[in-house]
Amino acid sequence: MTTSAADVVRDYYDALRAGDPLVPYFRDGETTVKFGISEALFGTEAVADALREQTATTDEWSVESERLVVDEREGFATFADEVTMAWTDTDTGDRMRFDTRWSGTLVPSADADGEGNAPDWQFATMHVSTADEL
Fold this sequence. Notes:
The protein is α+β, with helices and mostly antiparallel strands. It has one domain (5-18, 27-130): Nuclear Transport Factor 2, Chain: A (Roll). It has two helices and seven strands, in the order αββαβββββ. Strands 1, 2, 3, 4, 5, 6 and 7 form a seven-stranded mixed β-sheet that branches. A hairpin with a 2-residue loop joins strand 4 and strand 5. The relative contact order is 0.23.
């Protein structure tokens, strides 16, 4: 591994801000899971479809990490963060903003495409929820 798991999480935030492809950050597999604010995605195909749709229909992302913690071990890493994020819906022009909590697991990349396009670590699970008080 040349890039730390923490660097990959930060790179993901940068890719989100820039509107770059997000699919390479997720492990290719049926057990890959991404929970978003309003979605539950199981398997690479569902995750990839949702990420492509998100990139196509949103713009002007702001992603502000507040408390990123990463525990990198041999064979896996866990992360958690508090993130303020905002974006513009390109269909409606509405600006959305949420205070969120992120957590998940990263695994070493198998570089499934063989092209070197995958980061050194990839998300096996990601959970994003709002931090609104009840």
